[in-house]
């Protein structure tokens, strides 16, 4: 321990050394969480709070009740936060016991106000073993815990993209191998060893073998999964026990099982459970309508097959919802309607729930009533009308007398404290009743906390049924949301098959179709058969709708394959294995990657991984370099997608030269976004039509953007579009590549 430090600061130093250096320690002092030394210096700027000093020690603090918002800022800054709470009550002459109750990281956030409502928050782990790649991920707020094993690195990357873990554990020994993975955090290597992980998982699930989970022969996946459990228990000190009227009961149960929940989480569960009988009754009615409806009954009729699938889905949801009336009744009878956030301040339970608690509350209330009566008696006895009996947490109860009335103070009053405006006194009678009141209140709060822990543990005995119910409700919510959207916006049921056809009639963008205000969304058709026409070159001016069109096709395909109706009059979609996109413009300068480099990385991923069963949408390949280089890349990519990969592709571009590909390749067609010119202006019709655009309309778009007239009237464009004189001067025509694309002539440069 450092010499010269107070016992409290020695306590702080001991706890600080028990966590990693890159973790902030929030140290509870009364109504504040304080940070000291280097933590304080760094956190003060991240949190925008004042940096102060006490006895030469840098410090900053945040209010206890507002801590979640400040913790969120630190987590978003990429840091971990260790929360140190008081574990004993303050006693005169003794230092309060404190301990780290939890360590919060990006992947282990559980507080609702730190989470995104529409997105899971996963803690993931990856591990490589004998050429195989294991991936596991868990959501602490819901109890979801999954694992998989991939045969190659690309399959692992695909899984990571789908799940998007907020934090990803990697073995120290494999840190360099996985250094490029986003949100990667290295952790003790031994925690990933399959034998160690198998032991940890068996202990966690209270089983002798993992055979029942279907993963006994997946050593890499077991290594990843075991490391998550080890990390949560030993590094983050979390409990991992088995993990809108209807609220987010899954996350509430998750917080309660980690011992970070409060009485409001139990109320949230109670409110949700009370709605289940009505919800289950509605599902029963739906089952009857589907089962005894007048739909097709023929075995070979596709409608009959669909009805059968619907019945199975409804049955699964119905069976997954457990009503649990006993739990709901117990919570309703025990908990106050609006209990406080804090667990040790009382007010959690209803009167009548527990006889001992009622007796202590009665004693405290009667004592406070006696205090009020005492004030009236003392005013009458002393004649001091301004006499007050007051209370504060430092001095307890006291009688307050102003300076002007000190001469009237009785002899049996004992001076307690002198203030600016007067003095404070106590009497033996007041001291005696104070002990009874405060003692009753303290015992009452302690008893309430014990009763809460007991009620929480009793409720968590049903955690499996709560999680199954929450999962079923989540599925029902997703399905009904899709159904309601389809009904409101006149979606159609797509036809999915094993062909390579992509036929959409009157397709609409599912978001813009609902949000456009100033103009009505214009629907468009799409027709790719995978053979005669499998790659469409789409040209047209900026702002005309090329990007919207290719995105809407990708979204329609995605919605169809997830089981949704789609925004179209009709749709026939041959199943796709992946949807590859190269859209938008961004950079990552911190890693030395320009916009063009990002674009090329994404394009490389497509040409290296797409198959004939894929859907590819490309938006402006080759923009970030010279015109000829960009055109060369775009031309070659289009040829490769058509000739080699043979994927269904929508290729939006400003390079009109690419339209010539349709003359050379039978599977390539030209589309363009129709526009009309009127008085030097252009009108966007938003309609996709056959053929290539005749020009880019860049000057007109610049005019719409407000560029000055003197800029637009320059004749630079006309000069640049003059016929190439190099051929006439040499008498030789310009060369062309084998594909028919013209080559560039290198001019002789004058060095002077």
Rg over CA atoms, rounded to whole Å, is 35 Å
Distance between the termini: 74 Å
Class computed from helices, strands and strand pairing:
alpha/beta
CATH superfamily of the largest domain: P-loop containing nucleotide triphosphate hydrolases
Number of helices: 22
Number of domains: 5
Compute the average pLDDT: 82
The CATH topology annotation of the largest domain reads as Rossmann fold
Strand order of the largest sheet: 3-4-2-1-5-6
CATH architecture of the largest domain: 3-Layer(aba) Sandwich
Beta fraction of the residues? Answer: 15-25%
Give the fraction of residues assigned to helices.
Answer: 40-55%
User: What is the count of β-strands?
Assistant: 25
How would the global form be characterised?
elongated
CATH level-1 class of the largest domain: Alpha Beta
Low-confidence stretches: 294-302, 725-735, 742-752
């Amino acid at each position: 321990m450092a010499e010269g430090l107070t016992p409290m600061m020695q306590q702080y130093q001991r706890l600080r050394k028990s966590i990693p250096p890159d973790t902030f320690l929030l140290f509870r002092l009364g109504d504040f969480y304080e940070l000291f030394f280097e933590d304080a210096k760094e956190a003060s700027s991240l949190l925008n709070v004042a940096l102060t000093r006490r006895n030469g020690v840098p410090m900053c603090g945040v209010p206890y009740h507002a801590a979640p918002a400040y913790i969120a800022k630190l987590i978003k800054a990429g840091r971990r936060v260790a929360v140190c709470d008081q574990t004993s009550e303050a006693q005169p002459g003794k230092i309060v016991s404190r301990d780290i109750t939890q360590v919060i990281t990006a992947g282990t956030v559980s507080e609702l106000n730190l989470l995104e409502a529409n997105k899971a928050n996963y803690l993931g782990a990856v591990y490589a073993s004998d050429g195989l790649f294991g991936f596991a991920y868990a959501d602490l707020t819901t109890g979801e815990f999954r694992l998989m094993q991939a045969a190659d690195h690309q399959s692992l990357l695909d899984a990571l993209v789908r799940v998007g873990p907020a934090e990803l554990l990697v073995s120290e020994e494999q840190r360099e191998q996985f250094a490029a993975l986003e949100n990667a955090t290295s952790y003790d290597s031994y925690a990933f060893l399959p034998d160690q992980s198998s032991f940890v998982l068996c202990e966690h699930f209270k089983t002798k073998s993992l055979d029942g989970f279907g993963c006994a022969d997946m050593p890499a996946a077991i290594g990843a999964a075991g490391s998550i459990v080890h990390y949560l228990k030993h590094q983050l000190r979390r409990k991992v026990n088995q993990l809108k009227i209807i609220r987010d009961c899954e996350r509430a149960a998750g917080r309660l099982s980690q011992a970070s929940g409060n009485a409001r989480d139990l109320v949230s569960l109670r409110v949700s459970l009370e709605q289940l009988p009505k919800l289950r009754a509605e599902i029963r009615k739906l089952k009857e309508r589907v089962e005894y409806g007048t739909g097709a009954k023929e075995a070979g009729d596709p409608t009959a097959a669909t009805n059968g699938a619907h019945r199975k889905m409804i049955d699964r949801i119905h069976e997954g919802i457990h009503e649990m009336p006993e739990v709901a009744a117990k919570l309703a009878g025990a908990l106050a309607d609006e209990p406080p956030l804090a667990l040790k301040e009382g007010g959690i339970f209803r009167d009548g729930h527990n006889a001992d608690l009622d007796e202590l509350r009665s004693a405290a209330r009667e004592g406070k009533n006696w205090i009020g009566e005492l004030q009236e008696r003392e005013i009458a006895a002393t004649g001091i009308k301004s006499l007050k009996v007051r209370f504060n947490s430092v001095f307890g109860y006291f009688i307050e007398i102003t300076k002007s009335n000190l001469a009237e103070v009785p002899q049996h009053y004992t001076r307690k404290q002198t203030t600016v405006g007067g003095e404070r006194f106590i009497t033996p009678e007041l001291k005696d009743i104070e002990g009874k009141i405060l003692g009753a209140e303290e015992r009452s709060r302690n008893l309430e906390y014990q009763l809460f822990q007991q009620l929480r543990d009793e409720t968590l005995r049903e955690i499996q049924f709560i999680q199954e119910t929450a999962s079923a409700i989540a599925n029902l919510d997703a399905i009904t949301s899709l159904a309601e959207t389809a009904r409101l916006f006149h979606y159609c049921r797509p036809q999915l098959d094993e062909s390579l056809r992509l036929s959409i009639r009157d397709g609409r963008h599912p978001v813009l179709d609902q949000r456009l205000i100033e103009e009505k969304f214009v629907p468009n058709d799409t027709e790719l058969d995978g053979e005669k026409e499998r790659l469409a070159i789409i040209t047209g001016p900026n702002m005309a709708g090329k990007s919207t069109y290719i995105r809407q096709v990708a979204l329609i395909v995605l919605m169809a394959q997830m089981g949704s109706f789609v925004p179209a009059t009709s749709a026939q979609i041959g199943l796709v294995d992946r949807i590859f996109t190269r859209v938008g413009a961004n950079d990552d300068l911190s890693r030395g990657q320009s916009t063009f480099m990002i674009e090329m990385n994404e394009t490389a991923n497509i040409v290296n991984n797409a198959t004939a069963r894929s859907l590819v949408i490309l938006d402006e390949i080759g923009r970030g370099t010279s015109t000829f280089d960009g055109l060369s890349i775009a031309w070659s990519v289009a040829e490769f997608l058509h000739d080699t990969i043979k994927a269904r592709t929508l290729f939006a571009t400003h390079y009109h030269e690419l339209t010539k590909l349709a003359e050379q390749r039978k599977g390539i067609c030209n589309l363009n976004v129709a526009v009309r010119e009127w008085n030097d202006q252009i009108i966007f019709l938003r309609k996709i039509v056959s053929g290539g655009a005749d020009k880019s309309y860049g000057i007109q778009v610049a005019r719409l953007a407000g560029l000055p007239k003197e800029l637009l009237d320059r004749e630079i464009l006309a000069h640049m579009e003059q016929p190439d004189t190099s051929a006439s001067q040499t008498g030789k025509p310009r060369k062309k590549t084998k594909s028919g694309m013209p080559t560039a002539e290198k001019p002789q440069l004058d060095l002077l």
